[in-house]
Amino acid sequence: MGVRIRLRIRHDDKSVVTAALVNSGYESEVPEVHIPLALARRLGLKLEGVVSERYRVVGSDVSAYVLGTVRVSVITEDRESPEVEARAVTVPGEYEVLLSDAAIEALGIEIIRPKTGQWRFRGEEKVRSSVQPEYWID
Fold first, then answer.
1. Tens digits of per-residue pLDDT, 55-78?
2. pTM (global) more than 0.85
3. Residues 5 and 81 sit within 8 Å (Cβ to Cβ)
4. pLDDT score for 49
């Protein structure tokens, strides 16, 4: 199942709330969020002239395109985390929002049981359950 949280992504005057996979295997130096192309369009992120970088994933390399920066926060039924600035990237063919290890830590998310999808905010006792996945397909 994996851990998925409800995430608000904000760029300029546009905002979308969607599910995001908490992916501790997605390593980055700064908070980073993978945003599928369909969602990037909805947020008004610039897609022309973007720079690509090589990412190493599960034994191979992929090209990720840097889209700029966004603000993200975790939304639950009883609270919202502080916003965090994150670098937005996209990999064509990936349709789910993914959070890097640095973004997970910056948002204060602690994975309790990755297989069953349980997590909590750092410093709280309450164990939370994952939300359903959401896919952004053109």
1. 776 667 788 899 999 999 999 999
2. yes
3. no
4. 84
Phi/psi at 63 (5° precision) = -95, 125
Tell me how far apart the alpha carbons of residues 23 and 60 are, in angstroms, rounded to a whole number.
Answer: 17
How far apart CA 54 and CA 60 sit, in angstroms, is: 10
Measured CA to CA, the distance from residue 68 to residue 138 in angstroms comes to 21
Tokens of 56: 């190493």
The answer to whether the beta carbons of residues 129 and 3 sit under 8 Å apart is no
CA distance 88 to 92: 13
Rounded Cα distance, 35 and 27, in Å: 15
Six-digit token string for 20: 């995001």
Cα 87 from Cα 120, distance rounded (Å): 23
Amino acid in position 13: D
